[in-house]
Every structure is written in structure tokens, then in C-alpha cells.
Amino acid sequence: EVQLQASGGGLVQSGGSLRLSCTASGFDFSNYVMGWFRQAPGKGREFVAAVGRNIYDKYYAESVKGRFTISRSVAENTLSLQMNSLKPEDTGRYYCRIGQYWGQGTQVTVSS
User: Fold this and answer.
1) What is each CA distance from 76 to 11, 24, 81, 83, 109, in whole angstroms?
2) Burial (CB count <10 Å: 0-12, 13-18, 19+), residue 81
3) I need a surface site. Which of 1, 11, 26, 55 has the fewest CB within 10 A?
4) Interval 51-107: pLDDT, tens
């Protein structure tokens, strides 16, 4: 059974940091593009960051460039998102995606 388990969300003040993790099980994801998306209340799901099969191929939404860093560990079957200098507009539910699979999401709330 394919499972993506996201964790690391929480409540943080503006300017703070959080680190999200997504652990995959049930398949070999080493050949997949992996990414993070988020959805704020009342809005659609939007792209945040992605990392290709080559760990040096990384892509970011303009709104998070310079603040967020995506990384992957094939050995640990884990995708991570380090989020620094968080802003209230970063609030939302964050979802990991690997290929066509989605995790259940983890809530991030940034207070002003």
C-alpha cells in the first residue's frame, strides 16, 4: 500500500521557522519528481516547491524563493521542506506529492 505521511506543521509567529517532512512507503520513489503544495482557506491548491530526480534540480514558487528549501533523501524515503522567515500569507495546509500520489497534508499557521 502506498502511503505518504506528512508531519512538522504547527503554529508559529511571523519570522519563525518550521520543517516539514513527508515519509513515503509502499513504493520506490527514487525516479519521481517530488513536491510540496499548499492550500489556504478559501483558495485553490498552489505549487510551493519541487525537486527532480537529480537532487540539484529544485524549483520554487516566487513567493517562497530565498525562504524555503526543499530536499529529498532516497535512503530515508523522505521529502523535506525547511521554511524560514515565515509570513502570515504562508498559512495553509501543506501537501506532499510524489508522482501521482498525495499525502494527507499538515497544517501550517503563521500568526502576525
Assistant:
1) 26, 9, 15, 20, 27
2) buried
3) 1
4) 998 889 999 999 999 999 999 987 878 999 999 999 999 999 999 999 899 999 999
Largest Cα separation within the chain, whole Å, is 40
- pLDDT of 12-60, one tens digit each? 999 999 999 999 988 888 889 999 999 998 999 999 999 998 889 999 9
Q: What is the pLDDT of residue 111?
A: 97
